[in-house]
Amino acid sequence: MKNAFIVVSFGTSFKETREKTICALEQDLRDEFPDREFYRAWTSNIIIKKVARTEGLIVDKLEEAVLHMKADGVTDVLVQPTHMTDGFENDRMLKVLKDVKDSFDSIKVGRPMLVSEDDIDYMSESVLAEFPEVKEGKAALVLMGHGTPVKAGEKGYDPKSDPNKVYLDQENSFRKLGYDNVFVGTVEATPTLEDTVEKLKAAFPAPGKVYITPYLIVAGDHANNDMAGDEPDSWKNVIAAEGYEVVPVIKGLGEYPKIRARFVKHAREAEEI
Fold it and tell me: Can 3-113+256-271 and 131-250 be said to share one CATH topology?
């Protein structure tokens, strides 16, 4: 048998954050599974094309990586996504893997970052460790997540299984730990920025210091522009307009060793099934 390991990410065209997050996580996983041949794949065709054009960096789509593994004689595949939630991108990845399952003797897939209540509480504690002023109640923290498309309105849609529920679950985890000064919103789903600002104003009235940071593995376009950009509708400026001192922290969650360690744990658990 020839064993392989593949890390599946959305990808990013921001080289600096990529090296600190995706590449760092890939290296941690290489170190954990030295006996497996390493492969990587990204799920965003747009970003794959952009980095090929601007950097000369060639990254496989998952379908291409599968073909390369088959050609290399791989029989046993361990897959670890770097996705935050079991949402749209993870579903796309699982569909591709389902379509090729007969091409390998074994395909085992690790979980994304946030699946269980324990994962969410672990995230809360890991993030709070980076913001001592927030832990001491001297500042508030707003986390900017992405959000994922859902099939709302379609037959069989169950709001209890909405993958965006994880953002409210994360906020509730902070509450459970005794922190009512931490808030979680999304760029493209719910809770919205408007929802988040209203909760911030009610629980932590201005003036005061508010840190904003990505609830994302990489600090790419959303972090630099939607969150911390100079446009009037950026999270930084919308919150500042309410009278707060806003401090952007442009640091992807993949930079936190404890977060990367959780992905490694999920991969190891998958291998041992």
Answer: yes
User: What's the CATH architecture for 131-250?
Assistant: 3-Layer(aba) Sandwich (3.40)
Res 70 pLDDT > 50: yes
Residues 18-42 pLDDT 10s: 999 999 999 999 999 999 999 999 9
Please report the DSSP string for the chain in residue order.
Answer: --EEEEEEE---S-HHHHHHTHHHHHHHHHHH-TTSEEEEEES-HHHHHHHHHHT-----BHHHHHHHHHHTT--EEEEEE--SSSSHHHHHHHHHHHHTGGGSSEEEE---S--SHHHHHHHHHHHHTT-HHHHTTSEEEEEEE------TTSTT--GGG-TTHHHHHHHHHHHHTT-SSEEEEESSSSS-HHHHHHHHHHHSPSSSEEEEEESSSS-SHIIIIIIT-SSTTSHHHHHHTTT-EEEE----GGGSHHHHHHHHHHHHHHHT-
Which sequence spans correspond to the domains of the chain?
3-113+256-271, 131-250
Please state whether the predicted TM-score (pTM) of the whole model is above 0.70. Answer: yes
How many other β-carbons are positioned within 10 Å of the β-carbon of residue 61? 17
Fold of 3-113+256-271: Rossmann fold (3.40.50)
